[in-house]
Every structure is written in structure tokens, then in C-alpha cells.
Amino acid sequence: MKRSIKKFYLLKYYYLYYKILFIIFFILSSNTIYAQNKIPSTFMGSSLINMPSTRPVDAENLEVRFNHRFGSTKKGIYDLFGLDEGANVAISMDYGITKKFSLGLARISNLKTYELRTKYAILTQTTSFPFSISFHGAIGMETEAQKVILGNYLTTVNSTGNIIGDAYLKKLNYQEVDLSYKDRTSYLASFLISKRINDTFSIQLSPMYVHRNFVKPNLSNDRIGVSIGGRIKITKTIDFTFEMFQMPKRDYIGTNYETVDNTNADNIQMISGSTINSSYSNPNGLLFAYYNNVYRDKAVPHLYTPISLGFDFEAGGHVFQIFLSNNKTMAHTQYLRGADYDIYKKDILLGFNLSRVFSFENVKDLE
């Protein structure tokens, strides 16, 4: 019964998920009449809050970005709304090799991640073509050392009577291993599809595919999702921006799915069937087993849907973005894992991005 209800809600979720995608695609596909052949730039900069926008980095231009995500604001003024927790910081540079193709490198403090990325503008919105399309690809490597426990393969570990021998058996049992650089590498491919609806409103839909060389138990190495973002122009130099990631699956919280799944809401281990038969077969015991295993049962907790809302300010060649989000991640290959904080519990963070474009077009003329 429980499984049927879960299946029903999953099918309902998928129906709503693809219905939303269809509506957005319909909006993107609808044509809008403009006086000029080429539509003005859709977004203020080459990036939304998290994902790149379809706006390319111009040829022989270097865009430098500084991104910050502070800690949870939940403790209020005591932690200065998350500033005391320290920030996840990213520094990146993207260079326009041609007017359509750019290559970039980023370093993110979380997991000491390095990211090599590229963007290519395939099509640009005109009066005869309803939207802009770009391709975005990235390779991310987490250079911070990571250990994982693959699981316990021996049901019981008999003592050898020797401390060193017992420790060795325990190590074999839990299979603790160091992840290699290859294990810590992941890949992203995404198409950025945007449309300038009018002078005020623009929207972008970015279907994504991510492959991770290593994942925790009960997770797939491959994942798909979509970023939905846009902007509402307030003044000539100020935009309201928003972005959300949707994916059928997110990473669970914890190191081992079965361990988390076998723990109830009170963090007490579930009682096995054999233990119930041997020790809880009386009426009081069965009642306690029902309370522990069924009444206090909980779903395996997962990371949350990433949502961000903020403002863009343009001044003197700089674009400054300030926003609220529930997602501390900044590596493009990590967005589909899920967000860190639950917005329904008013758990959010403050973040900002600062970008500056340096042009080298006139350097050759001077030479």
C-alpha cells in the first residue's frame, strides 16, 4: 500500500514536471515581432545567478568573476546572517576566443574544485528565429582528499584475540578507500535556450546532463535536470533575476542509503524481522515494534530543490548580483546534486557575484 501511494505521487510529480517544461518551451517557441532583425541582448551579463546565460563573452574579451555564498541566515544577527560561517568562494575567468566561442577556468573553495568550461553560441534570437541557443560544457575535478566506506561485507567479525588483528578485520569489513582524482571528476553538457519576450521580461531554459565517475551507494552516475531562470527589468541598470533547478532525483543526506533508510525519526535502528520473531513476539513487544518501525518511520532525507532570487546592478563595466538562495554550491557539475538548505524551514543564505570585463581588442591596434 505504502509503495503504491509512493508510486502514485512519483507519477504525479513526473506529469507536473514535464507539463511545466512543455509550457516553458511553448513560451520560448512563440514568435515576437520586433522592428530590428537582431534582438537586443537577453540578459545583462554572461551568467544568471548560477548557470551561464546565452549571452556570449565577446571576442578578445576576458570576463573575471568573483562569487560568494555565505552560510545559513537561520541564526540571525548572532552569526551576522551567515557571514560568520565563512563563504564558499569561486574565482573564474572566461575568455572570448571568437564572438561565439569562449573558454574558461574556475576554482571553487568547496571540495577545492577546479572547473574547465566552454560556451558556444549556436543561434541568436532574431525576428525570424524565436530564441537564442548556446551549448555549455564543463569538466570539474574535486582535488580535496575524500574517503568513503563502501559498506560492511562481513555480517559478523569474530575477535582474533589480538588488537591489531581485530582492527585489520574491521578495516576489511568496512572497506574504507581513498577516492582517486578520476573518481572525483565529473562532466556536464547543457543547452542554454533563452527568449527575450519583450523589453521587460526574458526567460531561459537549460536542460542538463551530468556524469559523475563515482557516487554513493544507491545513486546513479548519470543525472538529468533543467535550470529555469529569467529576469525582469526594473530600470535601465537594475534587473530582478530568478533561477531554479528541477531534477527527478537528488542526492540523499548521509553516507549510506541502507543505513539511513533503516533508521527511524528518532535516529533509532529499525528492528529486524528475525529480532521481532525472537524477542518481540508478545503483544507489548509487537506494539513497540510497530511504533518503532512503522509509526516513527521516516523517508530517507534528500538534498533540496535549488532556488535563487536576487537583483543585478550594472555600473561602470561591472555587473554586481546580490541574491538569496538555499544552495551553497557553485561548481556547474554539482548543481544537480541538490541544495544545502530547506527554504520551507526558512533556511537560506546570502550570496553575491561580481563580474568585470576586460577588452583586449584595442591592444593589437596599439601595437
Oligomer: single chain
CATH H-level name of the largest domain... which superfamily?
monomeric porin ompg
Q: What CATH architecture label of the largest domain applies?
A: Beta Barrel
Q: What percent of the residues sit in helical stretches (DSSP H or I)?
A: 10-25%
Mean pLDDT: 83
- Count of individual domains: 2
Low-confidence stretches: 31-36
Number of helices: 6
- How would you describe the shape? elongated
Q: Tell me the span between the first and last alpha carbons.
A: 76 Å
Q: How many strand units? A: 14
Strand content: 35-45%
Please tell me about this protein's structure:
- There is one protein chain.
- By secondary structure, the protein is an alpha+beta fold.
- The protein is 19% helix and 35% strand.
- Strands 1-2-3-4-5-8-9-10-11-12-13-14 form a 12-stranded antiparallel barrel. Strands 6-7 form a two-stranded antiparallel sheet.
- A hairpin with a 4-residue loop joins β10 and β11.
- About 2% of the residues have low confidence.
How are the secondary structure elements laid out?
Blueprint: H1 2-29, E1 61-72, E2 88-96, E3 101-108, E4 113-123, E5 132-142, E6 147-149, H2 163-174, E7 176-178, E8 185-196, E9 201-212, E10 222-233, E11 238-246, H3 257-261, H4 273-279, H5 283-295, E12 307-315, E13 318-325, E14 349-359, H6 361-366
Defining key terms:
Porin, 367 residues, 35% strand, twelve-stranded antiparallel β-barrel, alpha+beta
